[in-house]
Amino acid sequence: MSHWKSAVDAAIAANSHRPESKYLQLATIRRDGRPAARTLVFRRFQEATHSLIFCTDKRSEKVAEMDDNPNVEACWYFPETRQQFRFMGKLRGIGLREGFPEETDLRRVVWRGLTDDSRRSFAWPAPGEEAAALEAFNVEIPSPVEPLDTFILLLLEPEEVDALDLRTHPHRRVRWSINNGIWTGSPRNP
Ligand SMILES: Cc1cc2nc3c(=O)[nH]c(=O)nc-3n(C[C@H](O)[C@H](O)[C@H](O)COP(=O)(O)O)c2cc1C
């Protein structure tokens, strides 16, 4: 049984010609206890912790929700290889307050990898607020080097991973959990 991380790396490679395979759904918990789900682009792994990295605007609702309750689940489907991975864990931000130098560097690296259009969206009026006048969206292209204050990274550090593979009969499902830094997989009925 290959480790979930190797399986995800292999799925990313096998699905790389399908841009939508980098989109996954992240569910948070709203203040009133109801769930909130939205699509995000997977950017990369933080290799040491196997955390999934996303970027977002610090003014967005998911960030306030994470502050109240960091427990989240992300669901990622790879259409070419018909695999689903569900990541349960805690979410935290990089760029919200003074951080470790290597994390500040990581934030810069991800910012530098964005397109001008993506970088520009971080200078738009605050997400989720009542729609602003169109002129408010005619913003300058920001520096490609130094991230805007609104730009943050979200790190989902998995505590459990549920891997489902639809290619076999019967389908194969493994529930992975981590204990003292060691991942173990338990085969489950699909
Ligand atoms: C294909 C696709 C990719 C998206 N990627 C991101 C992303 O990487 N980061 C992000 O903050 N929002 C992304 N969004 C927008 C979010 O789904 C969401 O609408 C927005 O972040 C506001 O969410 P919130 O109000 O729950 O915080 C994407 C939407 C789509 C449809």
Could you please describe the fold and organization of this structure?
- It is a single chain.
- This protein is α+β, with helices and mostly antiparallel strands and 190 residues long.
- It has one domain: Pnp Oxidase, Chain A (Roll).
- Helices cover 19% and strands 39% of the residues.
- The chain has four helices and nine strands, in the order H-E-E-E-E-H-E-E-H-H-E-E-E.
- Strands 1, 2, 3, 4, 5, 6, 7, 8 and 9 form a nine-stranded antiparallel sheet that branches.
- The protein is globular and about 55 Å long.
- The protein starts with a helix and ends with a strand.
- The mean pLDDT is 97.
- Bound molecules: flavin mononucleotide (FMN).
- The site of flavin mononucleotide has 15 residues, from strand 2, strand 4 and helix 2.
What form results from the Cα inertia axes?
globular
Task: Kindly report the name of the CATH homologous superfamily.
Answer: Electron Transport, Fmn-binding Protein, Chain A
Provide the β-strand percentage band.
35-45%
Bound molecules: flavin mononucleotide
CATH class: Mainly Beta
* pLDDT averaged residue by residue: 97
Which percent bin holds the helix content? 10-25%
User: Structural class, from secondary structure content?
Assistant: alpha+beta
> What is the string of helix and strand elements?
HEEEEHEEHHEEE
